[in-house]
Every structure is written in C-alpha cells, then in structure tokens.
Design brief:
By secondary structure, the protein is mostly helical. The chain has a single domain, classed as Up-down Bundle (Rhomboid-like fold), CATH 1.20.1540. 69% of the residues lie in helices and 0% in strands. The radius of gyration is 18 Å and the shape is globular. It starts with a helix and ends in a 5-residue tail after the last helix.
Length: 196
C-alpha cells in the first residue's frame, strides 16, 4: 500500500457543517484580502442599509463569515473547531446549522435595528452560542445543569462588564445574543428528544 493511501485512509470528514462553515470563513478572509476590504463591506458585514437592496438581506446572515483580521478569524475558528464537532455529533448537522443560522440572523437584525452606525462582522456570536449549547448537552428532563448556570452567569456578567468598561471594537451584543440562541435552542432540542 502506498504512503498516500495510508494517509488518506486516516482522514475523516467528521463534521461537515463545522468544516463547511470554517471553509467559507477562510474563503471570505482570502477574498477580503484580494479585494482590499471591499468584499467584507459588500457581503460579509451587516450595517444599516436600504431594505430594498437584496444585499442587505444577504448580509443579515453572511456577516458571520467575514472577519476583520487573521487573528480574529483564527481565535473564532479554534473555538468552533473544538466545540462544533461534538455538538454536530450530538444534534446532527441540520440542527447545528439551524443554531448558526438563527444566531447570524438574530445578531444581524439587532445590529441593523439598534446600532445603525456600526458595521458588524465575525463569528463570535456563533462561538458563544456553541459555548452555551455545549454546557447543556447532557440534560435530564426538566433539569437545569449547574454547569450551565455557572457558565451563563460568568459569561453574561463578563460580557456586560466588558460592554460597559472596555472601549474596543468587540460587539458584546453579538456575544450575548449568540449565547441566548445557544441556550434557548439547546433546551428546545433537548426537550425534543435530542439528549445525549
């Protein structure tokens, strides 16, 4: 058997939704570099724009693929590649895509309505959805895990503190909204019988 065949037999495309998402984010980052930032402004960020423009609606979801720089992209992808496969194995690709889509849409709409002068991009809302979702993956009927409560309290407290005390370009609203989507859909999916 050739060395190439041995190597290829060890690779497993184990998490198609997560790997596909990461691949799109990588392609968007490369495209943004090639266009001098134009692709992020045109497709991969959300901001107040006319609702009659079809790209406004596309950006409402596609902003999660764009990233301001390589460091931001790599930090988000590290969390997504760690948490995502476990969640995709438990809930399935379709439900994980639903969580990512709901997070993108909610954070896009909130930014569009409440922060008209701010351009939002990046997958950090999805990261925080996955963090909260992963903290409730083993839930008994009617039970709220203590680990979930601790993660939620620490996480929300940290995000509120940073939103008030730290002046940077991070959207803490996207983190909080993403966490809310992850927690809400996690409890809903567990109730629907997707428990581990």
């Amino acid at each position: 058997m050739s060395q190439h065949k041995k190597l290829s037999s060890r690779l497993a495309f184990n998490s198609p939704a997560v790997l596909g998402f990461a691949g799109i984010c990588l392609a968007a980052m490369v495209l943004n570099g090639l266009t001098g930032g134009d692709s992020n402004r045109l497709l991969f960020s959300v901001y107040r724009a006319p609702l009659s423009d079809p790209l406004t609606w596309l950006r409402m979801v596609c902003h999660v693929f764009g990233h301001a720089d390589w460091n931001y992209l790599l930090n988000n992808m590290m969390y997504i590649l760690i948490l995502g496969p476990m969640l995709e194995e438990k809930y399935g690709s379709a439900d994980l895509i639903l969580v990512m889509l709901a997070t993108a849409l909610l954070t896009g709409l909130i930014n569009f309505v409440f922060f008209p002068g701010t351009m939002l991009l990046g997958a950090s809302g999805i990261v925080f959805a996955m963090i909260l979702l992963s903290s409730i993956t083993r839930t008994r009927e009617g039970a709220i895990p203590v680990t979930f409560l601790l993660v939620a309290i620490l996480y929300i407290g940290q995000q509120v503190w940073q939103a008030v005390a730290v002046r940077d370009n991070v959207s803490y609203m996207a983190h909080i909204a993403g966490g809310a989507v992850g927690a809400g859909l996690g409890f809903a999916l567990n109730r629907a019988g997707k428990r581990g």
